[in-house]
Amino acid sequence: MMKLSNLKYLYVCPILVMFLNPYVVISISDVKSSFLDAIATNFSFPSVIAFGDSILDTGNNNYLETIVKSNFKPYGRDFFGGKPTGRFCNGRVPSDFFAEILGVKESLPPYLDPDLQIEDLLTGVCFASAGSGYDPLTIERSSVLSIDDQLSMFKEYIAKLNEAVGEEKTNMILSKSIIVISMGSNDISGTYFRSPYRRFVFDMDQYTTILIDQNSKFVQELYGLGARRIGILSLGPVGCVPMQRTIEGGSERKCVVEINEACLLYNSKLYSSILTLNATYPDARFVYLDTYTGLNAFVQYPKLFGFENGNSSCCGIANVELGPLCNSFVLKMCEDASKYVFWDSYHPTDRAYNLLTSDAIKKTIHQFI
Length: 369
Description:
This protein has 369 residues and is an alpha/beta fold. It is built from 14 helices and six strands. The strands form two sheets. It has a four-stranded parallel β-sheet with strand order 1-2-3-4, with helices on both faces. Strands 5-6 form a two-stranded parallel sheet. Residues 1-24 have low confidence and may be disordered. Belongs to the 'GDSL' lipolytic enzyme family.
């Protein structure tokens, strides 16, 4: 089998290089003020549409029979109104920030929300489902929406748009909107590393190739339905999330190198796949959105970005609290989540997501045009 430990990757963090002075602290207001004005002035997109997993899910799992839920406190305590919405975060997630930064709306509603109005559909919705992945075994383990389920709902969504505003306007919305995809971390960190079924059959090189092939197939299906501006998030340093460090990081809770190397291998193949897609479909824009570099910088140098903690979660004392285990009865809950990189044992905080999304858009916005 291929040994990932023999692979070497060179990742340069542009954010870190720009702010090597340890006395410089990056704040949300530093990133957003003039940046949002510039985006609103120079770019215009009718809607934002999201597919994937818990990184982007804004509440679809609330309407599913699954244990993969977060529609209870303390989740959502920093969201509008301080209410839990099904987002795996203390506040908003990247799909929301994409919508806000691109000047569409403050948050992205889940498609399965029964109270959606046509105005909500016209400006974009979220099809993502926490716990989802490209591997069918990932779906079986969590009973959530597969990528095929999300695609079927998207087709239903298109039909609703056609009925409401006509085919011509619907086609315009689809071709001009920003589509965001985030998926793959559950496949690698859960299905591959936490169960024996795939590891006995595939090495990591083979497995990541299968995942990338599924991603490429899905992106091309979106293209066939009219999407033309598609951004795909890389995997983050999943080996550095609090849960992985607690379970596999030893007494010092170090980042799990094997998992991070798998994520980097996946990312390198994703980048190459996106280059191929752009060459194959010159009338479309497929964009690689790097989140690994930024999140890794937050983890390694938290104080540089205004965080006080980069290796533990705000919710919980054991650093394994996630979903039902991150609840109102946990023994520890931080007072200010903005000082933490991670909200629960797997997901970043609202502030971390805001910084990561702002940086990704700033670096790639012209690639969508």
